[in-house]
């Protein structure tokens, strides 16, 4: 740091007095000055290139922890501080999250289920616990609404649906997709949601009962009881929706499909999963039982 200060100020002050003031030798400074700047050294050039590649691959969403995890997974030697310093020098950072508001509203006439999940946001296997919620997205055609279901074992989005209207058919379509994809065993799956009228409706409750799925619901006005689903929507909005305008609902649908099915489920590293992807974790789990 002292040599860097001298190098920066040498156009304004003599080198020798600055060296004496900072208790360094002129020989040390001149040796420093002959070395190429850190960003031009081969190791730093390689690191900057790899950090840039990973950050671009993440669509500009990764901060230093995920960049570091991917570097280490690929066998690239780097420390936490080195990655942080490199990203600062390149002006790279994770996208900041915006404020999140809930969409669903309760109907006091509908019966509700107890909070059986009780903030147990983990699972020992796939199709043990699912969480679900609904959010909204603005387009130049008007609002559209997205319902999504996540498996708490891998944080994988197992079912989703997007539409221009907010009614019970929207989460039912997401549920139907999740059932078709995962085929959970009746009596072995818990389904958790908030108390939104779409989830407490007779049609939705009948569907869960017919499928042999145990029902759990958040406590009144307690968003933390469904924190994983809300966190997913906050991530999706930060990494995909915010920062641009959307011309149409079909444009949003295509972007959400690509984000969930290609990036989120298969490429994005999740800190909760020890920086693995949902797809990777589920394949590792399946391999354990196949061995």
How would you characterize the overall build of this protein?
The protein contains twelve helices and five strands. The protein is of the alpha/beta class. Strands 3-2-1-4-5 form a five-stranded mixed sheet, with helices on both faces. Helix 1 (2-9) runs antiparallel to helix 2 (15-22), helix 1 (2-9) crosses helix 3 and helix 5 (64-73) packs across helix 6. The N and C termini lie far apart (54 Å). The model has no long low-confidence stretch (mean pLDDT 89).
Explain briefly what this protein structure is:
With 291 residues, the chain is α/β, with parallel strands linked by helices. It is 46% helix and 13% strand.
Describe the secondary structure blueprint for this structure.
Blueprint: H1 2-9, H2 15-22, H3 26-34, H4 42-57, H5 64-73, H6 80-90, E1 129-139, E2 142-151, E3 156-163, H7 169-182, E4 190-193, H8 197-200, H9 202-210, E5 214-217, H10 227-241, H11 249-264, H12 278-290
Strand order of the largest sheet: 3-2-1-4-5
Give the N-terminus to C-terminus distance in angstroms.
54 Å
What best-fitting shape do the alpha-carbon axes yield? elongated
Provide mean pLDDT, rounded.
89
- Helix and strand element order: HHHHHHEEEHEHHEHHH
CA radius of gyration is: 25 Å
Largest sheet: 5 strands, mixed
Q: Output the number of helix runs.
A: 12
Structural class comes to alpha/beta
Proportion of residues in helical segments: 40-55%
Count the strands?
Answer: 5
Uncertain stretches:
none
Beta fraction of the residues? 5-15%
